[in-house]
Design brief:
This protein is an alpha/beta fold. The protein contains 16 helices and nine strands.
Length: 614
């Protein structure tokens, strides 16, 4: 290997990284380190064929699917006047256009892939006959688009919003695995409150994003809308750019091969964002992670080579080195025990996180319940039940989304705390795990809608009947009293008293009826919130258990890898004493060659890391 003076550009860096992986993998194979070989092979695949996921999200009917079709110039997403995107659709590069369904199997089993004709993606595939009644998880499409060839993969999501926002948590569940986000909002009106809430939640998880202001061809006042939306973002503290665009103009420009029309559609600005920010930044991030993998593998191998080489060159130090390796091996093995510090930090952290997330959810629902009950006390629920229900369901969906974002952020903090225990224990080269978003998703599909309020309005005849029932007793009572004074049963005094008592009886009846209606409305809202909390709490507990398993397996793998490296070093030290003189000389030369390569690998990786930092 030669030492370069500088890492060079991205293409040269990629070539150097692949060369470093190959050299390190050969030494790992020579030492029978299949775990490191596999780890390096995954790193090589990731850096040479990266898949950078861009999630396309937004409210219902904002032009997400049409934007994706126009961007790729391939009909890969379903469009229509109704709710078109009902399943997440993943679009990646392929030499030919293909489509397949990903359907669920039994619990704990990998999902099945079922090929379908491309024409079928224009249909609602939730109950596709090819699935045989099984749940369809998503649709995967390949297309021969130049924009996808560099590693981009788009995820078209179901629109958030609508009655109860059923897709909100499922869409947020895709955010942790997204490298970038395209948020679509048409220019017919300014951002709505649900849109601002979703953007705040989504940008917390995926900060590399831009907002696409769609359908500028339909609304002449789109510039004023864009300016107003920029002001909304500034007040919310969201520093996210807005790109106005027209999918219709883009489609016409491609059909007519009209460069000026294409510029007017402003799609070159979207392509520029994807190329200059998303591809460039994410490729750099992937290279940085892969270089970290190379350095970690080289450190493991260097430990083994240096230990054996020291024992061969200086037999007197063999016993001292063996004792040192035994001690370090025991320390690494201690990290695998249930009583190890990292296990305690993980278990205690998950317990605290579960309790905190549950308490946070309960508190959010408690605030919502108190607010809705105040609203019910100030109006007639029978006249405003639709508005109250919509406000309640949107507030609950927002609360679930905020709780999800908070839980994800706390899980990342917990992963960092566990990693710190490894570093403090002397186990270096510990990388943070990528929390699997499939463990973070939650669906509100099973939650029942708010129950109807059964209260018939009081008709005029009923009102008259209530008044007459109250007035009858007044007329009769005062008529009998005034009859002793020589007046008749029906006289002005008895009739006036009857009217007064009838009015009082009518008012009391209406007040009692309103009290019953409001109590029924409050009971319905409490039942809805309880049902929602029951479902979401179960989802939350399962989600956190999945995160615990991810972190446990990740860090246990690190502890196992470190233990194996130390054990290999120990075995090499012991075996070196049994070598003959000729074999020892040959072995020393081979180890020195390997050590020289590993040191060059480490130096190269350090230069690449410093270049990324610069």
């Amino acid at each position: 290997m030669t030492q370069p003076k500088d890492p060079g550009g991205p293409a040269k860096q990629l070539k150097i990284i692949v060369e470093l992986i190959d050299h390190t993998a050969k030494i790992a194979e020579a030492h029978e380190r299949g775990d490191l070989v596999e780890r390096l092979a995954r790193a090589k695949t990731r850096v040479t064929d990266p898949q950078i996921r861009v999630v396309v999200a937004g409210q219902l009917k904002q032009g997400k699917s049409q934007l994706l079709n126009s961007l790729l110039n391939v009909p890969v997403a379903r469009v229509g006047d109704d709710e078109s995107t009902v399943l997440a659709t993943v679009v990646s590069y392929g030499e030919t256009a293909t489509a397949k369904l990903i359907v669920a199997r039994g619990e704990g089993q990998e999902p099945d892939e079922i090929e379908i004709p491309m024409a079928d993606i224009a249909n609602d595939l939730r109950r596709a006959p090819q699935a045989g009644g099984r749940e369809v998880l998503r649709v995967e499409v390949t297309a021969p688009s130049p924009l996808l060839k560099n590693g981009l993969a788009f995820v078209d999501t179901p629109g958030v919003g609508g009655h109860g926002q059923p897709h909100l948590s499922a869409t947020l569940g895709l955010m942790p695995d997204a490298d970038a986000l395209l948020m679509c909002s048409d220019t017919s009106q300014e951002f709505t409150e649900p849109e601002m809430t979703f953007m705040r939640q989504a940008f917390e998880i995926c900060p590399l994003a831009t907002i696409i202001a769609t359908k500028t061809d339909l609304y002449p006042h789109w510039r004023q809308i864009v300016d107003a939306n920029k002001a909304h973002l500034h007040r919310a503290g969201l520093d996210i750019p807005i790109i106005p665009s027209s999918s219709l103009l883009r489609s016409h420009a491609i059909t007519l091969n009209d460069k000026e029309l294409n510029e007017e559609s402003n799609f070159p600005a979207i392509v520029g964002f994807l190329s200059e920010q998303v591809l460039a930044q994410q490729n750099e991030r992937i290279r940085h992670l892969v270089v970290g993998e190379i350095r970690s593998a080289a450190e493991h191998l260097t430990m083994t080579v240096e230990s054996e080489l020291a024992a061969l060159n200086d037999p007197e130090t063999r016993d001292r080195l063996q004792d040192e390796l035994e001690r370090r091996k025991q320390e690494a093995q201690d990290a695998l025990q249930q009583t190890a510090l990292w296990q305690q930090v993980l278990n205690d952290g998950i317990s605290d996180l579960t309790a905190d997330v549950d308490h946070d959810l309960r508190n959010r629902f408690r605030v919502i319940s108190q607010h809705i009950e105040k609203v019910i006390d100030t109006c007639d629920p029978t006249h405003h039940w639709a508005e109250i229900g919509a406000e309640l369901e949107n507030a609950v969906a927002t609360a679930v989304g905020d709780n999800f974002v908070w839980a994800y952020q706390r899980a990342e903090v917990l992963a960092a705390e566990v990693a710190r225990t490894f570093v403090e224990a002397g186990l270096e080269a510990v990388k943070m795990p990528q929390i699997d978003p499939s463990q973070m998703g939650a669906s509100l599909g099973e939650i029942k809608s708010l129950a109807n309020l059964e209260a018939k309005p009081v008709g005029k005849g009923r009102k008259l009947s209530i008044g007459m029932q109250g007035s009858y007793g007044g007329v009769l009572m005062f008529g009998m009293m005034t009859s002793f004074a020589g007046l008749g049963m029906f006289n002005p005094l008895s009739i006036g008293a009857g009217l007064l008592m009838g009015r009082t009886a009518y008012k009391e009846n209406m007040e009692n009826r309103m009290l019953r209606v409001r109590n029924e409305a409050k009971l319905n809202t409490r039942r809805f919130i309880d049902d929602t909390q029951f479902v979401v709490s179960k989802e939350s507990r399962d989600r956190l258990k999945g995160i615990q398993r991810q972190l446990r397996d990740h860090y246990r793998g690190i502890a196992n890898q470190t233990t194996r490296s130390l054990n290999e070093s120990l075995q090499a030290t012991i075996a070196s004493a049994k070598l003959e003189e000729t074999e020892r000389d040959n072995r020393i030369r081979e180890l020195e060659r390997q050590l020289n390569i590993l040191r060059q690998v480490t130096d190269h990786a350090a230069k690449l890391t410093s270049a990324d930092g610069a």
